Amino acid sequence: MSSIKEIQEEIVSEFEILGDDKESTIFYIMELGGNLETFPEEERKEENIIKGCQSKVWLIADTVDGKVHYQADSNTDITKGLISLLIRVLNDRSPEEILKADLNFIERIGMGSIIGSQRSNGLASMIKQMKLYALAFQAKQNA
Amino acid sequence: MSLNIEQIRGLFPVLHQEVHGKPLIYFDNAATTQKPKSVIDALSNYYELDNSNIHRGAHVLADRATRYYEETREAVREFIGAKEFAEIIFTKGTTESINLVAKTFGRKFIGKGDEIIISTLEHHSNIVPWQMLCEETGAILKIIPINDAGEILFGEFEKLLSPTTKLVSVVHASNALGTINPVKKVIAAAHAVGAKVLLDGAQSTSHLEIDVQDLDCDFLAFSAHKIYGPTGLGVLYGKRDVLEAMPPFLGGGEMIKEVTFEKTTYNDIPFKFEAGTPNIADVIAFKAALDFVNSLGKPAIKAHEDGLLIHANELLSDIKGFVPIGTAKEKVSVLSFNINGMHPFDVGQMLDAKGIAVRTGHHCTQPLMKRFGIEGTVRASFSVYNTRSEIEKLAEGIAQIARFKNK
Q1: Chain A closest CA to B315's CA: distance in Å?
Q2: Which of B20, B21, B346 sits opposite A30 (nearest CB)?
Q3: Model-level pTM?
Q4: CATH architecture of A4-142
Q5: Disulfide-capable partner of A97 in A93, B51, B94, B371 (CB 3.0 to 4.6 Å)?
């Protein structure tokens, strides 16, 4: 399995191919949403909605053999694409790795100017919630 | 006479720029219109040459600023056909104008068990002030239903009217759908039961000819920034006798005749409702915006905008997955729609990537969105400086986006 750093490099080079073409970039992000695992219907509930996002984003996490496994969904395609990128980087890693992860790909691909400020705030909330899950699992493992 | 749109576009500096490497197409005019150079110049001229506080200044600058400020009031009077300048009050915007009526007229003349009627089409700014008043006084809020096209059901409205109706507050043209309400009929019916009528003119004043005496409305509220004028400025028109019967809104300077610690007497209208130093610069610059509109004439503006809306509907109606929201017979140039299977925010962001500025979401009309069973819409709203070729680019963009989910 590639490291967090390697996957981020992959993403950066994928976005480099798209260049400055904002339209293609947005279409690409929307296509990425299709990579998400099917989200369990019964988990589509209020308590799994991430606060601070304009659109609805549901996120759940579990641990398998000490690694955190995330599942997410959203009612908008762009948001689905964004969270699928985060999951691609952080999924199935130990809580320590997730907590330490410096997600510099977001800045390097200029995500802020691609998605605008409202969605950037939402993206920050998603990262925060993913790290909070990792922190909770870490505490449980250390207990 | 048809307008020279290229010449008009030349008056608006902001339109001549690229966003994301593409020429800007500005279709968010129902949120705010762009400003002609004359308005921008009037603002900077005021600060460069005339800046002074108005009324009672014993010097040339104050005299000049006062004269220009009051000239705008006269221009507004003429713009809406009011009988006298005293009936024109400057506020922060439509929202403040409506709140002013709720907090003064409402508190004095609306009590427990009295009824206020609004419509399903209202913007939150014409819902919440009345809910607050109802909570405070025990008055009751009644809602006029609409049909699937987004038109009020006039027969249902008539059924709601009764001697306990104290106020009918309705939107002249819907911001979310563009529906033009039959306000003259609404006003006559409301007056027949002794109710006063407030018109929310935020979306109508830039498109439709308004004559408050002919309409016979008791209040008209609107904002300068949606009529090519500056932000942070609005107007409340009220009939003299109604305004005179109302208590003041805010207390302070300007709104008084005489103050002693024992008792204060209030100034005459309109000054009674303009406490404190007003928004002098924006008021003065607003005259340039009204001059701009008058120079073109609203019938010519409306004809051009109607043409754009018709053109858009022709190009869009065949697109698979395109769902228009609000199909009233009488509309201002607002095109509200959704694309099957897509969130309006995504559609808006994709159009933005094409250089096309639209608004997405509930447009501050959540109850209206609920009526249609949707979370929101994409809204493209057209103005006098928009062109047919911009409409064609919008249609191309929508067609491409719709294909993403409607193959």
Answers
A1: 22
A2: B346
A3: 0.93
A4: Alpha-Beta Complex (3.90)
A5: A93
